[in-house]
Write a structure and sequence with these properties.
The chain is α/β, with parallel strands linked by helices. Helix content is 52%, strand content 7%. The protein is elongated, with a radius of gyration of 24 Å.
Amino acid sequence: MQFKQIVGQDAVKQRLISSVKENRVSHAQLFLGPGGSGGLPLAVAYAQYVSCENKLADDSCGECSSCRKYQKLMHPDLHFSYPFFAKHKDDTAITFIEQWRDAFTANPYLSLDNWRGYLDAENKQANINIAECHQIIKKLSFKPFESAYKILILWLPEYLDKEGNALLKIIEEPQPNTLFLLVAQNQDQILNTILSRTQLIKIPTLGYEEIKQYLLDHHHQTEDAAAEIAYLCNGNLTEALTMLNTDNKGYHELFVQWLRLCFANKGLEIMPFVDQVAKMGRENQKNFLRYGISFLRECCMLLSGAGSLVHLPARELETAQKMTSVMIVPEAQAIVAELEKAHYHVERNGNPKILFLDVSLQIIKVLSFKTIRQTADTNI
């Protein structure tokens, strides 16, 4: 993995490269950023750069013996630890290393859901067990074999329970030339004893334009498709890549049609709509609801006089402006709350027909019977 293969994050890349050039490589570093921001590929690219035999000014060479082994994730001084679904108490990350290499090679912007798909997870909970902690200590007790550094990348330390305290000594006092890289998404879920022993590297959410340009350049999406996916994923490239594999024919017209049916209280016509959405499949249903949430939030900004902050394509912006004449902020917020609850239940395999019919009835209450508007007027 080279830095040039990673979307955006130029400031973080420069900081990592400078730390190597200036010989300021901290032995324990925490890459902290939201899902889909690139923490894991950044850690792998950084490890490759540290180990590269012919470093360039702004990246690893990609051609030396070390880089070629890194590209296959088979360097003898590169080790990985990650959550897994243990079948036996002695299972460790090594047990699943082939699946890990396949998963990372297929998509460096890996999520736990993606990773679960490569394993026989059944109903087990992912975790990093005590056997894996002992294995980490064993791995890092040896000197580097080929490179200047022996490197361990620990993905999602949030899944270390109290057993993670077994790693404190090796994190605080590692063997010489040992590099410990943790990649996390939620700081609050990491053991404080581990957190206090690492140097924090914050990774920001990717920008709308960065994701859009990536989809145009590397996935040959149309301008409209790239714009819609970049808009829906909220800076999460993992979500954007998932959306590429769904049957996305554009959600704008379908969502506006739904709101119009609810506004006119056309109950009989809502039933065919519910049947249509129920057949879309879970991922498309989630994306459809996510689109509706994002679209109504943009409407709220228009209603609040913050039109300069709205980022909608021209056609959708025109629709949003028309909607502001028949909707107030509390109504939009009430509908967003219903859509968020629906998204939660879709993720948990709720019955889509019952779910979307219920949401439709709630939207009718808001738009047709003006429940929220009357409440707002009463409060005034």
